[in-house]
Amino acid sequence: MQKYTIVVCDHIHEAGLEMLQNDKNINFIMAADEDKEKLLTIIESADVAITRSSTDVDAKFIAHAKNMKAIVRAGVGVDNVDIAGCSKEGIIVMNVPTANTIAAVELTMAHMLSCMRMFPYSHNHLKLDRVWKREKWYGYELKGKKLGVIGFGNIGSRVAKRAQAFEMDIIAYDPYINPSKVTDLDMVYTKNFEDILSCDIITIHTPKNKETVNMIDVAEIAKMKDGVVLINCARGGLYNEEALYAGLTSGKIRFAGIDVFMKEPATNHPLLDLDNVTVSPHLGANTYESQYNIGVQAAENAIAAAKGISYAHAMNLPIDESKIPPFVKPFLEMGQTIGFLETQLNQSQIVTIKVSGQGEIAKYVDSLATFVAVGAMSQISDNTINYVNADFVAKEKGIKIETEALLDSTVYKNLITIKLTTAEGGTTTISATIFDDNVFRIVSIDGFDIEVALKGDMIILKNQDVPGVIGNIGSTLAKHNVNIADFSLARNDKKQALAVILVDNVISDDTLEELLRIDACSSVQYARL
Ligand SMILES: NC(=O)C1=CN([C@@H]2O[C@H](COP(=O)(O)OP(=O)(O)OC[C@H]3O[C@@H](n4cnc5c(N)ncnc54)[C@H](O)[C@@H]3O)[C@@H](O)[C@H]2O)C=CC1
Ligand SMILES: O=C(O)C(=O)COP(=O)(O)O
Asked: In the listed set 297, 316, 335, which residue is the last one of a domain according to the structure?
């Protein structure tokens, strides 16, 4: 029985662990409490790893993940996952979006209320210091305040809705959404970041990336209202931490609610010394409900990925299968087979692969190119080539992948053409189509119109179109005990001919050399599909 290894790198809900344990195809390793060095050795045998924000999937991790097919981030943010590095190694990165949305939304509201009423401080004053001093703890109300929401996705939009229930005025900044998503809720949408800076309270809910890091820095804070309140339950570093500290100590920022830090765990962070901050140790996703949902979904998705069944919420697959209509899938498979075939026919360093599509298939020529590249490179690479790393490996090998969507019609409903060029200037161009019988059919090779099924072991022979060649081919193959399964011929107006011979036996180099010695024969190529 085939067994797949899934390593759980961080703590996930028991329900997820049970699913992993109960699947007889899964060898499950719990490594959440292992030190980082030990974890690196454990993941060497893993097919799939489940991680949370405590495990950095960095170059070191990837270097040890020698067998890894997929990483399931049991949560939303993948800022600590080197996605490009994973893609290069063919590792699919998946996350579990939305399962912790409500948990993060409610924690954001908790921080907002805590900041406005200084709740943890009044609480500690009474509970720890045993002081009853009501006049010390005057806070502010949310009602009537302007809330600036940066990032109006799953979490940001729901924070806004809840804030609206507190009778706050909402203004949202998110250049990547349709403004109606905001305006339909009777909220204000802005493309002007300055509008956000003029709010009473600002909360951020974007992913952490190059564009969003330090989105709030010294200059932005300077433009804010005196006494502004800032909330960050998304990622440390979206608000520049030094600027935040300076703003809090100067009093420009009255209060901040912070769940996330640049470097976690953050037990010695300067912000912890301030009296106008409420903090939590990255608890946005920490509710029983959300962790149950995430644990179960992460386990389900990890099992499916380990078995190669599906890759839910894959972030680095160049092809979104859900957007590929059924008629395209066989063309992708055919493109991959042609890529494989053309590499064998040329047996030389590939420099360019040009993929063209005509008909409806033209819309999917990029996906097609990925499949062709996988087919072409599977023959020449020591690495395991797959749809995730095909583009990276091609670049590394200096192979240029070109695509062309041809809009003019052909006699075929859909036609794909793949031209492979080698460093020595050799080229092979094959066009193919699929009729209603679902058979992959080559319809042209190097400009010769020919109809031949794309399968089996084939010899492609070019010759001067003179009498006697076919007979010579037949006798040469018979001499070597080769059985011919199919023989197709094509000729052009330059007195050249091309034969595709499907054979039942493996062809030796001797046989190929003897074929090449036939008078009038100009080239012989051989491939096994
Ligand atoms: N504290 C915690 O435990 C948790 C933190 N998070 C963090 O919250 C983030 C948001 O999560 P979701 O709302 O589920 O993600 P989402 O993908 O649904 O929403 C993100 C929104 O940010 C917007 N955005 C991206 N770049 C932007 C920019 N430069 N300016 C303005 N808006 C921009 C996007 O258009 C999108 O609408 C995650 O990426 C994660 O880092 C998520 C869950 C729990
Ligand atoms: O889902 C996210 O992005 C979170 O920040 C939650 O992180 P965690 O799984 O709690 O380490």
From this structure: 316
